[in-house]
Write a structure and sequence with these properties.
three-stranded antiparallel sheet; 47% helix; 361 residues; 3 domains; 10 strands
């Protein structure tokens, strides 16, 4: 049991009869403290009932979710597309009915989506099957919607918390060779060129780079101060190459707050997908995401003598096991290398590769 403050509002959070209940109180802490004291008393003397779920259809809730929550996110366009698919399946159900039988609904949804087809065309008249990755994005949004439903008082708890509902996904990380990376930088145009250089020299995420502020950069100390996804502040060292580029950009900074500021809006660029797509075509590189630059940084950092602990801190990983996958990838690469050429003993004789004959004369 406890009370907490979210933005300007105080909430109470407690568990009753196996269900977690969170209720919004007011902007005064004393109200939340008094309310919690009453809840404890009511539970002790068995006077406290469970709150009844509010009746609302999934379709209507999806509209509210889009208006009050998704519209505030940068991924609003993506959410709209995912919501459309979820509504086509869950739209006629009430939100409380879905929550009460969520496991069955999820199982049926996954089965139905695996049988769906998209992108019909001349080469593929029957359509391309929906990928498990796409279904996972839909399920992630669905779970977040149930979290909001609890927060807004429509259901008592999210039955999907702590339950694995996603399909297993294989990492799509791709590491470019040094020559490919050099070609990528050479072909890039500003401001994307500088964004790529920052990514390759720091391992920062795209969102961190696009929202990077000048007051987060200390060129004298050669450090960048940024926040990870968990809002924890971390310090990233600036190497010589990055120092040279940032010093050059700082001369043209003028009064801009952001390193990569849109001169039209005065705000940071929201994305670089279009410019990135054109860059890959010019560089002749396929199936490579901007996020893979982060993986390139991590891999080459370890290959050039970096240690896992420093890499973990630089990347902002809370768990060392997340960082360890780069070490595992290196080991797999070494294993393929030694397996590509093998020599040993056969029938009691040592076999050797024939050496090239030296030219004489």
């Amino acid at each position: 049991m406890g009370i907490y403050k979210k933005q300007e509002t105080w909430w109470v959070d407690y568990t009753h009869q196996g269900k977690r209940i969170r209720t919004k109180i007011s902007n005064k802490k004393k109200d939340a403290v008094d309310f919690m004291a009453k809840i404890k008393s009511d539970i002790l003397y068995k006077r406290h009932p469970l709150p009844k779920d509010k009746k609302i259809s999934f379709c209507d809730f999806a509209k509210k979710y889009a208006k009050l929550h998704s519209s505030q996110k940068k991924s609003f366009a993506t959410d709209k597309s995912l919501l459309k698919t979820l509504v086509s399946y869950f739209g006629n159900y009430s939100l409380s009915d879905i929550a009460n039988d969520s496991k069955n609904h999820i199982a049926l949804y996954k089965t139905e989506r695996l049988n769906d087809r998209i992108k019909k065309g001349k080469k593929n008249p029957n359509g391309k099957p929906v990928s498990k990755t796409t279904i996972n994005r839909e399920l992630a949004l669905f779970r977040n919607m149930l979290n909001k439903a609890v927060e807004w008082g429509y259901i008592s708890l999210n039955p999907l918390v702590g339950i694995k509902i996603m399909f297993p996904e294989k990492p799509k990380e791709r590491i470019l060779t040094k020559k490919e990376l050099e070609r990528l930088i050479a072909m890039a145009r500003q401001p994307l060129k500088s964004q790529v250089i920052v990514a390759l020299n720091t391992g920062m995420r795209k969102g961190e780079i696009l929202n990077l502020k000048w007051d987060s950069i200390n060129l004298n100390e050669r450090i960048i101060e940024t926040r990870s996804k968990t809002k924890v502040i971390r310090i990233i060292a600036i190497n010589d190459e990055l120092y040279k580029m940032l010093s050059h950009l700082s001369l043209k900074r003028d009064r801009r707050s952001y390193v990569f500021e849109n001169p039209v809006t005065g705000k940071p660029y929201t994305d670089n997908k279009t410019a990135w797509g054109f860059l890959l075509k010019r560089a002749g590189i396929e199936n490579f995401r901007f996020h893979d630059l982060r993986h390139c940084f991590a891999t080459y950092a370890l290959l050039n003598g970096g240690d896992l602990v420093s890499l973990q801190d630089t990347l902002g990983h809370t768990d060392i096991r997340t960082t360890s996958r780069y070490a595992k990838a290196m080991i797999e690469g070494k294993r393929r290398l030694v397996n590509s050429f093998q020599i040993g003993e056969k029938d009691g004789e040592v076999l050797e590769m024939p050496s090239k004959k030296r030219k004489t004369g």
